[in-house]
Amino acid sequence: MPDPLLVIEKLTKRYGGLVANDEVSLTVELGDIHALIGPNGAGKTTLVNIIAGEQPSTSGTLRFDGQDITGLPAHARARMGLARCFQTTSIFGSFTALENVAISAQATEGHSFRFWQNAAAAPSLNRAAGVTLSEVGLGARTRQNAAGMAHGEHRQLEIAMAMANKPKMLLLDEPTAGMGREESFALVRMLQKLRAGYTMILIEHDMDVVFALADRVTVLANGRVIASDTPNAIRAHPVVREAYLGEQHA
After folding, report:
1. Are 156 and 193 in contact (CB under 8 A)?
2. Contact (Cβ atoms closer than 8 angstroms) between residue 200 and residue 34
3. Which listed residue, of 58, 73, 98, 149, carries a Cα 20 to 30 Å from 92's Cα?
4. Cβ atoms of 182 and 190 closer than 8 Å
5. pLDDT tens-digit profile of 217-248?
6. How far, in Å, CA of 76 to CA of 20, rounded?
7. Percent of the chain at pLDDT above 70?
8. Mean pLDDT in the chain?
9. Which of 233, 89, 223 shows the shortest CA–CA distance to 161?
10. What is the four-CA torsion angle of 58, 60, 62, 66, rounded to 10 degrees?
11. Residue 58 pLDDT > 80, yes or no?
12. d(CA 78, CA 120)
């Protein structure tokens, strides 16, 4: 059996007297979709920020693809294969879908901003961006300006931008936020198709989405892991049902 792609050991994040993550330990297996759930303020986004390298941890270690990444900055982690999608979309509205994906690929390769507007003119970036857009269901929208796309398409586009350099792991922060039911179902179907090529960490409040996608679920409350198991085991976990789902157990 291959080693886990990501190993987090006793990770803690303090802001003065506030403890956002409290000795969090978990592993993410290669090829899995690993969901992080828990009430607001549980420390989920802070944990993903630390994994991505956008915030330092106070203590603890992270290993990605067999290497200690605890002290590495975000851009170094991105080059190793960690790609982040945010809770709010971060696309360039005046650029086409193709240009947005090409820009993302070029940025990860370390080029300066002054070249970005011509990114889609580079044949190799252009071809790769078109393939990636097709993978997320936007193959027919390559020349559409991003500002004119629907909210659900923005989420698809942002995921395509994260996929631009074929990362090993996608970090997805509430990808269905603000979506209607049909848009959410469409995004779930798209992520199910992508799972063959990507390991994912998913923050999500919609339990239908979590249980449709996740191979494993970690539950956070007050910055601590209270359970980490298969979706079926999490459904039946009495402490989870009380702490997160709001149910009382005997």
Report:
1. no
2. yes
3. 73
4. no
5. 999 999 999 999 999 999 888 888 776 655 44
6. 24
7. 88
8. 88
9. 89
10. 150
11. yes
12. 21
Contact 249, 241 (CB under 8 A): yes
Structure tokens that stand for 200 in this block: 């994912």
pLDDT tens-digit series, residues 155-176: 999 999 999 888 999 999 999 9
What strands lie across the sheet with 169-173, from one edge to the other?
82-85, 169-173, 199-203, 33-37, 216-221, 224-229
Buried b / exposed e along 2-13 (16+ C-beta atoms within 10 A): eebbbbbeebbb
β-pair type (6-15, 59-64) = antiparallel
Every domain of the chain and the residues it spans = 1-81+169-250, 93-166
Task: For 75-132, write each residue's pLDDT tens digit.
Answer: 999 999 999 986 556 788 889 999 999 888 776 555 444 444 555 556 777 888 899 9
221 close to 234: Cβ distance less than 8 angstroms: no
Tokens standing for residue 146 = 């991003």
Q: What is the pLDDT of residue 32?
A: 97
Residue 14 has pLDDT above 70, yes or no: yes
Q: Which amino acid, one-letter code, is at 148? A: G
Interstrand relation of 199-203 and 33-37 (parallel, antiparallel or unpaired): parallel
Count of residues for the chain?
250
For residues 32 and 43, give the distance between their C-alpha atoms in angstroms, rounded to a whole number. 21
Among residues 163, 148, 238, the alpha carbon closest in space to that of 194 is found at: 163
Task: Show the CA angle centred on residue 178, arms to residues 172 and 183, nearest 5°.
Answer: 85
